Input
Amino acid sequence: DAGITQSPRHKVTETGTPVTLRCHQTENHRYMYWYRQDPGHGLRLIHYSYGVKDTDKGEVSDGYSVSRSKTEDFLLTLESATSSQTSVYFCAISADRDVEKLFFGSGTQLSVL
Amino acid sequence: KQEVTQIPAALSVPEGENLVLNCSFTDSAIYNLQWFRQDPGKGLTSLLLIQSSQREQTSGRLNASLDKSSGRSTLYIAASQPGDSATYLCAVRPSGSEKLVFGKGTKLTVNP
Output
């Protein structure tokens, strides 16, 4: 993998609790993304970042917030987890959104009971 | 709205066979198209990236082509091996968009 670490790898939590997922990169890439992958829906973009403190919403951003205080770290927070947020979450990075490959982390399996 | 379709959803072939995976997209205004491989329980690995101005890219036994005007891409795998068994996804980056649009993938099984 291209220097991307997601933590935790697995998490089980209860409805209504806050959850934070972390993505850490060692590539000094500008762009970072959070996706969720669900059967029947494929991969969908939650939020993305194009620099420190520069973030924007993707297509399924409701119920999620993000922060990027350092180039290497991109945090995804579920303020109050719901069962519909049970999914596999992937972080991805890219040096240049238009011409560079996208590299993915290994994913976080989140179960909200 | 850009949509990406991959057919078939699943494919099973004997080892050694050459095969083609298909990807179609509805809007030809794209920056690039990528083919990814995903192994069970793992993340996605980018295999090939084709810029909108390119027609094809090759890496080892893999060759991806792009026909932007017709909204089609193919991934050709030569002399398939059991280790090629995985799900293959294609994704396009629409012009002016931050968002990659993914197909749902083709699950490939190569039988020894």
Remarks:
- Chain A has a mean pLDDT of 93.
